[in-house]
Amino acid sequence: MKYSAAASLLLAAASSLPGLASARIHGLNHWVHRVSVRGGQSESTGSAVEDPALFGDEELAAKTFKDIMGSSLLKVADASKGVTEEVETGAALEGKHVALYFTSQAVEEQLAGANQEEGRPGFVASSIVMKSVYERAQKAGQPLEVVYVPVQDAAEKTQEAFKDMPWLSVKPDNATAINLIRKAGVSVLPSVVILDPQGKIITTDGYTNMAYFPEDFPWHNKGLRDLLGPEFERADGTKVGPEALQGKVLGLYFSADWCAPCKQFTPLLKETYEAVKAAGKELEIVYIGSDKEESEQKSYFGTMPWLAIPYGSKHRAIVPRLLGVQGLPTLLIFDENDKLITANGRMDVTKDVQTGTPGANFPWHPKPFADLSDSPEALARGPVVMLFMDGASKEDQAKLSAIAKPLAEERAAAFSAALEQGGAAVLEAPRKATFLAATEIDQLSATIRKLSGLEEIQGKWKFMKSKKDAMRPRFGLVSIIEGKRAISEETLTEEALKAFLAEFDAGALELEPFTIQEGGAEGGEGGDDADASAFQ
Length: 536
Prior knowledge:
By secondary structure, the protein is of the alpha/beta class. Helix content is 36%, strand content 18%. The two termini are 16 Å apart.
């Protein structure tokens, strides 16, 4: 899982709600995040990435891997007997690129089991993928060594797994293993962090890069344009290159001929596309189909005025996997520099059309204040100021929104101005956070209440005096990525909210881990979106 176990509970709840599949929070997986953060550009093949979140300055400047992994590593001496021997770290890794391979045997067993039970080839034990890539690199004479870092496995399981591995391992009883896990900030398994021969980071997305681009040693991160491939086609069959996307807002439209909700949304998107173009604004959309036959894509795409990844291109299958697309239709919007604007494009486009103004809010930048049901993906972008109004009357909700919305907009404007100014202004600006208002008593708001340690409420309680305290408007800070929250004991008022935000800006809030309750919410099959199982 990408985030905490608590976050997964929330994500499962979000994915089961009608109309939210295109905005699923787990659609914003680590690949979208990293593509967005690095501006969508491929990283130079001649330089490493210095990521202070992983290793400190001294470790990044280390001349040998001994400083990172200890003086010795393990090597299998006799696989049949499970006998290992120690090798000197510096000698074993000198002049090589090193892939730190983090996994757990529990995860490996789950992956293998899912593949057998569901017959979905997308679920493959990572050890199979890693062995294939490792053997390919060895045959090509590429200077690669893998170092296995077991995560939370019993010693017996670690030994059993390692005896079949052709590479090295840290000592499972050595504090080095725990230290590497902590420093790497491993939150998804399997994970691979690739270091250059000087011990500097090439990528923390090594497993993804190796699995989908095994030939691309040493696996520098690819930008969004590279992921899309070298060629696109129009409905009339003409071909164009990546230059057709330059300097434009980019929409990635994941859809399919067999998907009924897709066929309902495509005309709305077409109307919007034409309106934006007519207004002289730069927009291009790329259709990434999940059609089962080439004839189906040709027929369906023939109704569209934008570009498509050709049916026979491997990128047609790779892109949705890497971007974590789970449901159809999905519309991701990126800016001219390939930074993600929104994963909620379907809902944004639909709203504009329904109000009679297609494309009016193009390019649909996230609003600083939004309803939880409209923008659940904001929970995956960073800290959120949650306003629990779901127990209040519509009249009280309107009053509270009138208080919170101007605050959110003022803070967002101040933060943007500080970014433009740069320097000390950024440090003095209000901290960035989206304000989300929970206004409906539903599964999503109930799950966030559970994670936040608040009592789950019911609609009938509005008429019960004994439940008055549970129904009162509350607020707090929720960080899905960190798996933490800070919930105020105060009732939501202007004064209380301003005081809370002052503490947030000063870094004085005391964050605590999410509350995980047994038998929590589970994702279901509901919703009006198609499952993108064809991607798996």
